[in-house]
Amino acid sequence: MNLFDIHTHSTSNKFAIFNLEIDFPVESISYFSTGLHPWNLEVNWQEHLPKLQALAKDERCMAIGEAGFDRIWGPDNYVQKEAFSAQAKLALETGIPLILHLVKAHDMLLEYFKNEEKTPTIICHGFNLKPHLAEQLLQFPVCFSFGKALKQEGSNAAAWLKKCPADRYFFETDDSDLSIDSIFNAASVILDRPVEELSNQVISNWNRISKRKIYE
Ligand SMILES: [Zn+2]
């Protein structure tokens, strides 16, 4: 069984969304996401938008991102907000979700939702925040992607996965060297649902939130 990995920095699994750096050659990639990460935002970030818009037209571009907010590493808030809004708009217009990077900036995400009438589906990736913060987001088009934190007993991620509506979750390896199978296995134990069921759930979740469908 091929298990879908929604966010990875490795090219080894083909049934996965590879996090593409904007200047990486795309030829050998099956699915990818690409965006302007807050860590890499420069004052002239707008200059990279045409490249991003061109990549978004590629049918293999499954999501915009990582994009988001980071209060530890990243430029001034207003630069982050502008760059995020532009990328969210691109995701919305393309009909694909946005993969979110969020560090100590939960309020900035809430502010974005409150100010925008129409938003793309936003996937909080590497989710490991307190469940009550996740609950606040359920009123918005938000999904959650769970990774290595599921393997730590008593993690926030494990606590939220138990409560998270089944139509809102995904799984990922991110930059870890874990296999996607081991993440699904951990989720299967936490949720007491067979891996095969989780696999079908994730595929149907994806195909509900995105115009660009995935097939096993
Ligand atoms: Zn990542």
UniProtKB/TrEMBL annotation:
Keyword set includes Methyltransferase:
no
Q: Which GO terms describe its molecular function?
A: hydrolase activity
Q: Which SUPFAM superfamilies match?
A: Metallo-dependent hydrolases
- Organism of origin: Algoriphagus pacificus
Q: Does the keyword Hydrolase apply?
A: yes
Keyword set for this entry?
Hydrolase
Q: Please identify the protein, giving its name as recorded.
A: TatD family hydrolase
